[in-house]
Amino acid sequence: EPEVTQTPSHQVTQMGQEVILRCVPISNHLYFYWYRQILGQKVEFLVSFYNNEISEKSEIFDDQFSVERPDGSNFTLKIRSTKLEDSAMYFCASSGGTSGAYNEQFFGPGTRLTVL
Amino acid sequence: AQSVTQLGSHVSVSEGALVLLRCNYSSSVPPYLFWYVQYPNQGLQLLLKYTSAATLVKGINGFEAEFKKSETSFHLTKPSAHMSDAAEYFCAVMDNYGQNFVFGPGTRLSVLP
Predict the structure, then answer these.
(1) In terms of Cα–Cα distance, which of B33, B98, B32 is closest to A47?
(2) Which are the contacts of A64, defined by CB distance < 8 A and separation ≥ 6?
(3) Which of A4, A33, A36, A42 would you mutate first to test chain B, the one with the most B CBs within 10 A?
(4) CA-CA distance, A8 to A68, in Å (whole number)?
(5) Chain B positions touching chain A (beta carbons under 8 Å)
(6) What does the pLDDT look like over B34-81, one tens digit per residue?
(7) Which residue of B has its CA nearest to A38?
């Protein structure tokens, strides 16, 4: 069964460093998403991406964040200068079809980011 | 704006007992509703979803949920809890205009032997 994969599973970085979290969505999906979950808190939407551009983003997704689909398979989240409060589990998700709003989002296993 | 509330951040039940996890939503348009489960150190797995078809939705692992528009609720139930059901459960709502989910705060289910 196709699944969303994410690498690495755990990333440790120093405050101020740049990190790139990688995701491989399900191959025929058209919509891509990033969410984060701070330890012990709820899952929060960051950004959605369709047709090579951001379709929606939350207040959390400030100028420190960017997303990219550099090739036909990967979808990345970059944090330019990490802060301690960026420590969280980051989930990638994808959904398919021509009207993606109606489709289930499939989630990856997450990348745990620890900022020291 | 949509929102989701889950009554009870932690629910404990005995093995074999009924599981009831509560979810209430607010949405200005007919919503799509989802329950996800998160096992320790794992990602989110879809349990079931409501997308305006039958109001009683059956999911995986014996779970089901009923959409009640009058109560703006989508409570998750399972007749008999199993030890393996211990996990965090998230209710989520998505309207038919957007693509992003709004998640509830989650309910941690503990199953006691």
Answers:
(1) B98
(2) A79, A80, A81, A83
(3) A42
(4) 17
(5) 32, 34, 36, 42-46, 49, 51, 90, 92, 94, 96-106
(6) 999 998 877 888 899 888 778 899 999 999 999 998 999 999 999 999
(7) B105
